[in-house]
What we know:
Low-confidence stretches: 122-126
Radius of gyration: 18 Å
Oligomer: single chain
Number of strands: 5
Order of helices and strands: EHEHEHHEEHHHHHH
Helix content: 40-55%
Amino acid sequence: MERPKIAVIDSNILSVLGLKQILQNVIPIMDVMTYGSFEAMEESGADSFFHYFIAQNILLEHRPFFLARQHKTIVLSPNSDPSTQPSGFHCLCINVPEEQLVRSLLMLEQYAHAHGKNLPKMPKALTNKVLSDREIEVLSLIVQGYINKEIADQLNIGLTTVITHRKNIMEKLGMKSVSALTIYAVMHGYVDINKI
């Protein structure tokens, strides 16, 4: 069975590659395809995509196409001021720190696809429990912004134990950043997005 696809359409290649990496972490069951222009995306089968992440100028140039697919379109906006964003579309401000962009994506995903609604089933490998209960507790506190000493105090364990758990979590998940851990924790229901 073919994996569902997301199209990212923007002429800014660095922006496209960065967003592709984040989307692959947030929604690992999707294939993320990148395009520098609307025409390039259209050539690969415009209606084969689950979602479109598009630059605001692409929307303006091809509004009728995206208006017909409004529920599947997310506009990449250069700022967060609602008065400058196109009405009727979900918008995502891309000129923010990575943590804030990840949080916005996770909120958008939870709003549109709460508990996996409208999403294809996750492969077994992605749904298996990888972490111990204690590691999940530590992970939850890490992504909520607690430092090692605070985690140790809250869980009533030693500081070196927290550091060991943190190292084990990152090794088991193959992740090196708090943003990646945040995505994992939210997508697996270990922490509520509103607590981040």
